[in-house]
Amino acid sequence: MLFKTHSELYKADSFTPLLISGLLAPEYSLFDALKVQKGSSFSSRHMQYDEGEVALIEEETVFATPVIMMMGKHDMTTSVQLAEEYYEVIEAPYKELIIFEESAHFPFFEEPERFTQEMIRLKKNLRMSKLETSD
Fold first, then answer.
1. Between the N and C ends of the chain, which has fewer C-beta atoms within 10 Å?
2. pLDDT at 131
3. Contact of 19 with 106, CB cutoff 8 Å
4. pLDDT of 16-48, one tens digit each?
5. Backbone phi, then psi, for 90, in 5-degree steps?
6. 119: closest CA among 100, 105, 135?
7. For residue range 83-114, what is the model confidence (pLDDT) as tens digits?
């Protein structure tokens, strides 16, 4: 369903492009690729979906560290609308919400140039923010 609606990879109908890029990356070997399913299965078995009585938006809103949310506009795995609502109530020394217009759940893969530019910009902004608070 997520691939039919392009809400996992915005311009793809399967994980194939992501898998191929991983197989072609010099950082990984074929042996590493064979471990992907094992790791995914491990996570699924041990991850707990703890939907408590209190929503995160009501419980955790004040942070002592910078909070940066980067997400694809078409992501249906992680709701952009809920992230925007949460972002509005967060208190942090630095906060920023970055929406990638041509991405779903993997903006670093779908918009690598813009993702890289944003990371460089954020690094600079956070350095400047740190300098300002240390005066």
1. C
2. 62
3. no
4. 777 777 777 788 787 887 787 787 788 778 776
5. -70, 135
6. 100
7. 999 999 999 999 999 999 999 888 998 999 99
